[in-house]
């Protein structure tokens, strides 16, 4: 078996990995990417958790379930009569699979277009060799590669709850939650983070009775408190039963059901019986099978690969990006790190600003933010001004029939520099990009207030929030 030599080998084909390989190839390196994800037929399915069992399929199901919700509850407001609306869950899941495959195939096309060599299998270190590294690919056909530079982008796995290990039939990770074959009558969710809220929303819209059990005493603790408060109110009105301060005692599987015994926030013992249980209590870095010991790659106590600010590991010419290292476990953060590392290998100055990474929860209403929350600014003793504008006063939101939520802007009290923007409402995931751009350019609230925004548009709410920082809104 011959050895194939490369300048850069990327282990992992998720958002961080495939983007890193493509950028390395664009910069003139002989690049390869190794990824082991398989489709239903056993073929390659690059894109990692995000494409296969995360960001992309969850958005497909959220879109389908939102259409169903609108047909059942909101079409009449527009004068549209739709009687006896039904949902074909199998067809919905099939559409989701098609969307996933389109993304898988798109990545394979991009590899071909950019002359990235792709190897389908699990990549692992063999040894340091001749100023580089020998890497084994264990797949249908075993390969041996050598690389001067290695970029590790192996992602993360769903964290298991002790005593409630995933079987993907009754107790589900994000993977199983995306493949439920029929709407359960009762659905339990442990964890009220992004995955829990998004998947809970999907199946609630399709008719499931959804109970979310959260260990933390505060809801959406990472979000701005005013956004979290509004979200809790809206989700409760929609029918999501969210219980906070819960302590799980046991999870017991029965004949087609699961019983969760827990103590509520007041310490009272409770019992919940559900048809399916989604466990979404975070994710853990994935270094399984990497054979890090063979080369002395350093991991921290969480199992994450230890890197510096430039994503360098303790080994020369070995880098790591994305969920397998420190920082937020977000696909777009991984992409930016992948690009930055490829550019650093080329002697350029790749840059990732953790302070302007946007966060999004694709519920309805959507939730998005960038920068500091109000509670963070208070804790840090930063003097700030706040401006807020509700979508109920926005003409486009009224026309859409979705006036829930608001845009909130936080700016430095002295310099007026934008420190954070927090949005709950329609298309928040798109609106937050203006705030990211503004903050990257160190814009002030006055800058946004002085920019002409199209009318009518949802983006006008951002302009009005900027005006509100100076207490001079025009439409509220």
From TrEMBL:
The keyword Cytoplasm applies. It is found in: Cytoplasm. Its EC number is 1.8.1.4. The keyword Cytoplasm applies. Pfam families: Pyr_redox_2, Pyr_redox_dim. It catalyses: N(6)-[(R)-dihydrolipoyl]-L-lysyl-[protein] + NAD(+) = N(6)-[(R)-lipoyl]-L-lysyl-[protein] + NADH + H(+). Keywords: Cytoplasm, FAD, Flavoprotein, NAD, Oxidoreductase, Redox-active center. PANTHER family: DIHYDROLIPOYL DEHYDROGENASE (PTHR22912:SF224), DISULFIDE OXIDOREDUCTASE (PTHR22912). The active site is a redox-active disulfide bond. This is Dihydrolipoyl dehydrogenase.
